């Protein structure tokens, strides 16, 4: 069970300051939610993750179902005990994999978004690698090719075995190139699965419903109204959010204005720094993204002066910390020179140090936004 | 500058309890010395490395010369400042690479030692990939194929730029299959290079001479006497140490009995757990080895009940810590199940957690030996 209290509402936007109480502690919102796909923040120990200020993590149901399997985690006392993460935790539903292993995998997820490829998914189309059925989705395990079936019933069962504080209803995350008819049909499926998810939900975990609807105003509104009317504890907002911040803000406003105000809203898979203020101003309370962690593993540091690519030789002679104003232990201890050396020499702890800094920086950034809401500046 | 004080000598063996004082603090000896090849303990931050109880690290001159280059490190204020390691530090001379990139690389280092391959290196033989000259060794950079020349002069110059507390004279580390004549000729080279190293040594860093001589009693004794008579601050013992612990103990006794008693002795590149007591009983004060860190990255934990291979599925259901009696933060926090899951899922922090435990365990193990010497039990 969770409770959500709105401490302050912005007068200038939909932004709000809140506190989300869970059985594993409180989350000050708005909050960035680092991703712990397989029950670990990649390249960091949880001890380090805590020191970055991470309040709430999200793990992936689909991935944990494959490895090590929810039965093992259940036997070990659930995901908190298994991993030793003692703060709030959510699991996604596997709905994102309907996209990423389906049309997304086929069409190339990034490319579509950037290039407006001319591809179009029409009503009745099926991805090649998975099959979307009435009651769920037939997957192939990316690890061993084994057949898997996950629908609302299966997703909830797995998530109940995992035992996170917050779980999600199973949904179809649609592709940015799905056309109106496809998307209209898809939200019918997502809505049916939302009700099914609630039906199968027996545990005391909080459950969020997921709003879809792509880039189509009426479908987003329809989905928000439908999902918002169901007895969920909070709401996820999934799918695409357009090409720019303005489009994202608009799409979010369609959704947010049609969700119950008193319940928490989580934006699924969005979290570049430049997305944060628009998302928060649109009324989002929490949001997860792999950006700070994945970019770290590719040698990229986020700083107040922009992104730094530590693989570049220029940084080998740079005595500055990653970010001069950052108070994280990496910036207090190490130079760009040393971290660049480690990254170029393929030392594992380069990823660790960069992940630490990026997460700290993202968490600090949202912390500053919380202060701005509090002081009435946002 | 360093000083070495022997606190207690064993009555039953050559073992001694000591304290090695360096500009960056003291080392309680006997001590295990973790390897920080490129200025980082692989997979660990230095903050973590400190918490494993590591007292003294050894970095590799050859590797740091290639990446990032000693000039960059010098500009950054030396290796301590560059890396943020604030405890004692030594750099090897590059002499091991004369073996590992020479005959060792050609013949397969591990295989020779295990299989007694019938290979033999005779006087006048040269490895194919490097050339051993009068004044040093012609290498090819393993990174870009560039020609490199390192002799005693170059090695000392590089090590002075790096600025560790303790540096080593340049030597030829001979192969286990080098015959008597080759080894006899080789120690002449090593001895000449030892004198050259001293001649070029201008800094206030402590410098250790390296004893070689392979498996040959008279050559080991000759080398120990020669190197031991030079004004070094301590001594490294390099090369091979036979097939078993008994052979190692015997070879070490030939050397140790011919070195000045009051100076510290470092065994280069030896450090399986089972080697520690024989080495310490033979009068060794410090020893380095990649075993705990490299094995960790391959999923192996060292424990009181033997080595565990965490890649095995059996550990997925094992609720025990890596070692029941271990007091390290990994054993206090995590189960074998979780670490096995992380390792099998190729999560980077599996390597981090295993490296932490292994180093802590090795350091604890030597700490126990120190207690046994103190109480007169060794």
β-sheet strand percentage of chain A: 15-25%
Number of β-strand runs of chain A: 16
Q: What CATH architecture label of the largest domain in chain A applies?
A: Alpha-Beta Barrel
Contiguous runs where pLDDT drops below 50 for at least 5 residues of chain A: none
What is the average of the pLDDT values of chain A? 95
**Over all CA atoms, what is the radius of gyration of chain A?**
20 Å
CATH fold name of the largest domain in chain A:
TIM Barrel
Outline type of chain A: globular
The amount of helix of chain A comes to 40-55%
Number of helices of chain A: 16
From the N-terminal CA to the C-terminal CA of chain A, the straight-line distance is 30 Å
Name of the CATH homologous superfamily of the largest domain in chain A: Queuine tRNA-ribosyltransferase-like
Q: Main sheet of chain A: which strands, in order across?
A: 4-14-13-12-11-10
The CATH top-level class label of the largest domain in chain A: Alpha Beta
Largest interface: A-B, 38 and 38 residues
Number of domains of chain A: 2
Quaternary state of the chains: homodimer
């Amino acid at each position: 069970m969770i409770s959500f209290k709105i401490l302050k509402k912005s007068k200038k936007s939909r932004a709000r300051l809140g506190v989300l109480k869970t059985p594993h502690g409180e989350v000050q919102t708005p909050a960035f939610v680092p991703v712990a796909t397989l029950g670990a923040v990649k390249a960091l120990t949880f001890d380090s993750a805590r020191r970055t200020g991470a309040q709430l993590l999200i793990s992936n149901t689909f991935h944990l179902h494959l490895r090590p399997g929810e039965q093992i985690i259940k036997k070990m006392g659930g995901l908190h005990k298994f991993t030793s993460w003692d703060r709030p935790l959510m699991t996604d539903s596997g709905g994102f994999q309907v996209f990423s292993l389906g049309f997304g995998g086929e069409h190339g997820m990034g490319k579509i978004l950037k290039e407006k490829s001319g591809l179009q998914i029409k009503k009745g189309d099926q991805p090649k690698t998975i099959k979307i059925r009435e009651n769920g989705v037939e997957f192939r395990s990316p690890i061993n090719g084994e057949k898997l079936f996950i629908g609302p019933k299966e997703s909830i069962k797995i998530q109940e075995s995992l035992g996170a504080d917050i779980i999600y209803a199973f949904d179809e995350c649609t592709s940015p190139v799905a056309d109106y008819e496809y998307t209209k049909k898809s939200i019918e499926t997502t809505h049916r699965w939302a009700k099914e998810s609630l039906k199968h939900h027996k545990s005391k975990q909080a459950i969020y419903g997921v709003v879809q609807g792509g880039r189509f105003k009426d479908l987003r509104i329809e989905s928000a109204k439908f999902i918002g009317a169901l007895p969920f504890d909070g709401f996820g907002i999934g799918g695409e959010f357009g090409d720019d911040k303005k489009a994202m803000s608009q799409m979010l406003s369609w959704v947010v204005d049609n969700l119950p105000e008193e319940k928490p809203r989580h934006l699924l898979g969005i979290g570049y720094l430049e997305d944060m203020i628009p998302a928060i101003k649109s009324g989002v309370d929490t949001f997860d993204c792999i950006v700070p962690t994945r970019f770290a593993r590719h040698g990229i540091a986020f700083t107040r002066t922009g992104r730094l690519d530590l693989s570049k030789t220029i940084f080998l002679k740079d005595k500055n910390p990653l970010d001069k104003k950052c108070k994280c232990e990496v910036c207090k201890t190490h130079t760009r020179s040393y971290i660049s050396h480690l990254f170029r020499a393929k030392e594992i702890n380069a990823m660790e140090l960069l992940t630490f800094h990026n997460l700290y920086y993202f968490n600090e950034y949202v912390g500053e936004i919380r202060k701005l809401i509090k002081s009435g500046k946002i």
